[in-house]
Amino acid sequence: MLRERARRVGAAWEGSEAAASWRTGYHPTGGAVRLPRGGWRSRGERRAYEQGAFRLRGELPRSRATEVRVAWPGRASVVRPLVGVQESYARMAFGRGGGQPHLTVTGARLGTMTVATTRGPATVPAWLFALHGYDTPLRRAAVTSSPTPRSPIAPTRSVPGRRLDRLGGVSGDGRTVTAVAVRGVCDGGARVGALEGRDAVVLSGSVVKGRGSGPCTKQAKLMPVRVRLKRPLGGRVLLDALSGAPVPYREAPPG
Fold first, then answer.
1. CA–CA gap between residue 119 and residue 16 (Å, rounded)
2. Are 69 and 81 in contact (CB under 8 A)?
3. Are 206 and 125 within 8 A, CB to CB?
4. Cβ(142)–Cβ(116) under 8 Å?
5. Which of 39, 91, 132, 221 could form a Cys-Cys staple with 104, CB 3.0–4.6 A?
6. Which residues have C-beta within 8 Å of that of residue 153, sequence separation ≥ 6?
7. Highest-scoring range by mean pLDDT, 136-140, 185-189, 219-223
């Protein structure tokens, strides 16, 4: 049943307006943060980053821009809304920066960084946060993703399987996809199958049944699963078989 569902999802997306919209948008598949060159100097500062413990010394700049351009080599660019510096700072400074350890931001400016996307590496505007004690900045992409196109096929609850939690990333050669799947604590593990088409790759999540006979809780765990494709992903959309929609990329929390 799951395999047949994957075929129906793939057929619905092939040649669809949703697939065409996906190919022309800005959809990240890699991290939108770049640490200072060489990484953190100490475990304490790494922990401060993971816990969102930042302190602002001075003022953040104001930007008149409301829209910015995302560019790919040899391809059409996309104009997207700018994420303001205050919002960008708030996203990383979600903890309490008053105690120790903490990281001190001494300023910021608008620059660029490279982000992996469904259309290949893109040059995107980024806020470059200067940190006390570091020679290079902490970069955070300052642009919003394109809207996810509406799926041409409705989700299903009648087919056995597990929805995928998110996309964990795509390898540099586009041949390996990491999907974060849901499994129960008593399951034997998670597995993900792939059905490849011209415009889409449909991922089907399921679990390996455990062999234990003792009591089991209903807790769930997230498990990264690597899937090797027959050919590079390219501009094809990664779909979840059960939802019929693109697998969302959400950067994992620090740590």
1. 18
2. no
3. no
4. no
5. 132
6. 8, 9, 12, 13, 244
7. 136-140
Check residue 208 and give its pLDDT: 81
Residue 2, classed as helix, strand or coil, is helix
How many angstroms separate the CA atoms of 189 and 212, rounded? 13
Q: Which residues contact 213 (CB under 8 A, 6 or more apart)?
A: none
Asked if residue 194 lies in contact with residue 2, where contact means CB atoms within 8 angstroms, the answer is: no
Place of tokens 């390898």: 171
pTM: 0.83
What is the residue type of 210? G
In Å, how far are 120, 124, 183, 217 from 115, measured between CA atoms?
8, 7, 30, 40
Task: Determine contact, residues 102/48, Cβ cutoff 8 Å.
Answer: yes
* Number of other CB atoms surrounding residue 253 within 10 Å: 8
Q: Which one-letter DSSP state was computed for residue 162?
A: B
Q: Please report where in the chains the tokens 């996203």 appear, as a residue.
A: 91
Continuous H helices in 14-150: 17-23, 43-50, 85-92
Task: Give strand pairing partners of 126.
Answer: 111, 141
- Across the chain, what does the average pLDDT equal? 90
- Could you tell me the two tokens for 210? 């455990």
